[in-house]
Amino acid sequence: MKALIIGAGIGGMAAAAALKQQGIECDVFEAVKEIKPVGAAISVWPNGVKCMNHLGMGHIMDELGGPMHKMAYQDGKSGKVMTQFSLKPLIDDVGERPCPVSRAGLQSMMIDCWGRDKVQFDKRIERVTESADGVTAYFTDGSVAHGDFMIAADGARSVVRGHVLGLELERRYAGYVNWNGLVAADSSIAPIDQWTTFVGEGKRVSVMPIADQRFYFFFDVPLPVGLEENRLTLKEDLKGYFAGWAEPVQKLIDELDPETTNRIEIHDVEPFDTFVKGRVALLGDSAHSTTPDIGQGGCSAMEDAVVLGMSFAGNTTIEEALLDYQDRRHERAKDLVLKARKRCDVTHGKNMAVTQAWYDELKQEQGDKIMAGLKDTIVGGPLG
């Protein structure tokens, strides 16, 4: 039995690993000539770490995961701590730690685990057809590949999604722009073992520790869609958006490199229930494109892969396995997309009265409520 895996990102490589565990041969195709991830880092919460362990890639988390032992929110203007707490109770409760990691490092090591020479790069899918004996992928370079079934992990702008749904979906602008990148960890900006977030005015500035004494940083600003990007004025732009904010925020802006800082207009896709058509299944962002507001995009793709493997272990035919995968994943995936959307609106000032009420709650927070919310999301995964 052979699977065609479309996409060599986190979801695609996790799916390949899960299917390999079930003795299924996989051919992996990636659209780009080399992996250049959008986004500098990713927060892999304990549910994602458990998935990586299950898939035999837990060592990647050990190597790349940053020392995120605490969490804090601070007032953007004054810098005053609103709440600060240890994540140890959460870690003890769910049985695994969160691992913020370099996205490029994660994808590269997942590909290396599979075998870089076994991934076919520069293969952009154009269309897919199905017949009685399997599926055929047609690529823009004129090449063709045939397999018994297809797992489409081809991202938020998925080509294969149109085949599965029979229509093209529009992405929904979430209302804000995100700048992100990596800088050297600096205790004058924030403790180097803490996820620190400055909030105010519906905006957000955050630093999260990853391996090798680095911070992953991001800035969120509610803005109209379609504004021109200019790296030459990036620092000046951020200084304007965060004028009057606390000194650590100003220092972070001073230390970032505009040439390696990503600017992303954040979108999601309205959740849908159909992940499968015949012998073609969607996985990861192609099935449930989400905003990054609860840090579950990558984790959800890893969960998809784990469930995919479980479904093939528990069913006798390809069609049964893929439908079982769909049945076990679509509600969970929808829940995560909508949770992220709700958090996005609160965080980014869609209704400033609601956002201000959240700021006021943070000043009373001891960590219990936040960790309870994190736990609820984490334990909803396939591995508990």
Automatic annotation (TrEMBL):
Source species taxonomy: Bacteria, Pseudomonadati, Pseudomonadota, Gammaproteobacteria, Oceanospirillales
Keywords, in A-Z order: FAD, Flavoprotein, Monooxygenase, Oxidoreductase, Purine metabolism
Catalytic class of the enzyme: oxidoreductase
Domain of life: Bacteria
A GO molecular function held by the record: FAD binding
Family matches, as Gene3D superfamilies: FAD/NAD(P)-binding domain
Keyword Oxidoreductase carried by entry: yes
All copies of domain FAD-binding, residue ranges: 2-337
EC number: 1.14.13.113
Pathway(s) annotated for this protein in UniProt: Purine metabolism; urate degradation
Catalytic reaction annotation: urate + NADH + O2 + H(+) = 5-hydroxyisourate + NAD(+) + H2O
The protein's required cofactors: FAD
Protein name: FAD-dependent urate hydroxylase
Family assignment from sequence similarity: Belongs to the FAD-dependent urate hydroxylase family.
GO BP annotations, alphabetical order: purine nucleobase metabolic process; urate catabolic process
Annotated organism of origin: Marinomonas pollencensis
Record keyword Cell membrane present: no
